[in-house]
Design goal:
The chain is built from 15 helices and 15 strands. With 442 residues, the protein is α/β, with parallel strands linked by helices. The chain has two domains: 141 residues, Aspartate Aminotransferase, domain 1, CATH 3.90.1150; 275 residues, 3-Layer(aba) Sandwich (Aspartate Aminotransferase, domain 2). It has a seven-stranded mixed β-sheet with strand order 4-10-9-8-7-5-6, sandwiched between helices. Strand 5, helix 6 and strand 6 form a beta-alpha-beta unit.
């Protein structure tokens, strides 16, 4: 693997890059050519320590032999098989492996190809469930301010990040939003879960009073909001939201695309917070990002209502050509076995206190307005320059990369989520590089 050399592309213009400043990048390209363990390498073989697990997804580290070989073996045996009224063994095995990790009573798994597809699939399942139970009037979908649920129209509609919506006009009808949980004046520099903010869940009662509980199908939230800049749920918030949903017959959907597969030291946030949803979305760490794959897990009751409560024939008119793709299924099985054999959840829990101390050591860096953490997630919020929101975050991201550490900028918040194989020496290097970059741009 180390002998592979990827030459520089001779034309950057053909690729329209996602979520990128295309004009700046093509004038100032930063390229990644290979990866191994905790690091990426540029085309000129310069190491870049990965403090983001790629994009919240390579939780077991890069280039893991067990996953690579599983994909290679499967490609030789069965490269593709349709899953509409047909099946192949690995898709069923992969679903069983996922179901071993989901909360008790959530044993039904529907495969997708991304977090965005998982979000839209979860919303459609919620609507189909209520219709199957004779409650077709339940069509309203509730999200949360600053929420991110991918880029499909369903996920965008319940999502609450303005720039993700404003270019595209009208979203789905019958949506509403809870307030976000960020209370900086009361919770600034909290370690782990903030103390204040459980009362914000009561806003769901106000939405119920406004629209009527009988019109609301589901509430979708991220247990820990990632893409908006690491917003950790206050103590008691998720518990209260669960209580309100249960009282009014509203389904609770967790978007666990980021928080799943060890990121919080447990298989899912539902386990870490001891609050179980009705539907759960996942992706990213499911295959260690080696092959795109997502999934939706539902309660057995939801599956039974839709599948066993339907007449003969297709019960859910939904799916994707690549649902349960053989290569993705092989990658998922190998990834989950790697998590089990190396106890990556346990490794994450063991290093979490060190990670937390390291993150909060940056509280005195110039221009740092807040530090937030939970599990192996960290968010460093910088004060914004007047009239140039996001500029400081972007500059820190670029400086860190040029100094050999990959972080993620979301506005003026630096978000980090290292692979679960991270060691204290890696954490030290991340923090030192970040401190130097913050000081340089202040």
């Amino acid at each position: 693997m180390d002998d592979i050399r990827v030459s520089r592309p001779n034309d950057l213009e053909s690729l329209w890059m996602p979520y990128s400043d295309n004009r700046y990048f093509k004038a100032n390209p930063r390229l990644l050519a290979r990866a191994s363990g905790m690091s990426y390498y540029t085309p000129d073989n310069r190491e870049v320590l990965d403090a983001t697990a790629g994009l919240w997804c390579s939780n077991a580290g890069h280039g893991r032999r067990e996953i690579v070989e599983a994909i290679q073996r499967q490609a030789e045996v069965l490269d593709f098989a349709p899953t509409f009224n047909l099946g192949h063994p690995l898709a069923f095995e992969a679903a069983s492996r996922v179901a071993e990790l989901t909360p008790p009573g959530m044993d039904r798994v529907f495969f997708t190809n991304s977090g965005s597809e998982s979000a839209d699939t979860a919303l459609k399942i919620a609507l189909a469930y209520h219709r199957a139970r004779g409650q077709s009037q339940r069509v309203r979908l509730i999200g949360r301010e600053r929420g991110y649920h991918g880029v499909g129209f369903g996920g965008m509609s319940v999502g609450g990040i303005g720039p993700n919506r404003k270019q595209f006009g009208a979203m789905l009808p019958y949506t509403d939003h809870l307030p976000h949980t960020h209370l900086p004046e009361q919770n600034r520099f909290s370690r782990g879960q903030p103390r204040h903010g459980a009362h914000l869940a009561e806003a769901l009662e106000s939405i119920v009073a406004l629209h009527g509980a009988e019109t609301i199908a589901a509430v979708m939230i991220e247990p820990v909001a990632g893409s908006t800049g690491v917003l950790v749920p206050p103590h008691g918030y998720l518990q209260r939201l669960r209580e309100i949903c249960t009282a009014h017959g509203i389904l609770l959907i967790y978007d666990e695309v980021i928080t799943g597969f060890g990121r919080l030291g447990t298989s899912f946030a539902a386990e870490r917070f001891d609050v179980t949803p009705d539907i759960m979305t996942m992706a990213k760490g499911l295959t260690n990002a080696a092959v795109p794959m997502g999934a939706v897990a539902t309660s057995n009751d939801i599956y039974d209502a839709i599948v066993n409560g339907s007449p003969d024939g297709i019960e859910l008119f939904h799916g994707y050509t690549y649902s349960g793709h053989p290569l993705a299924s092989a990658a998922a099985i190998a990834t989950l076995e790697l998590h089990r054999s190396e106890d990556l959840n346990g490794r994450a829990r063991k290093i979490e206190p060190y990670w937390q101390d390291a993150m909060h050591s940056l509280a005195d860096a110039p221009g740092v307005a807040d530090v937030r953490d939970f599990g192996l997630i960290g968010g460093i919020e910088l004060t914004s320059r007047p009239g140039a929101a996001g500029a400081r975050g972007t500059e820190v991201f670029r400086r860190c990369f040029d100094k050999g550490v990959l972080v993620r900028a979301t506005g003026d918040i630096i978000a980090m989520s290292p692979p679960l194989i991270v060691e204290p020496s890696h954490v030290d290097r991340i923090v030192e590089t970040l401190r130097e970059a913050i000081a340089a741009i202040h």
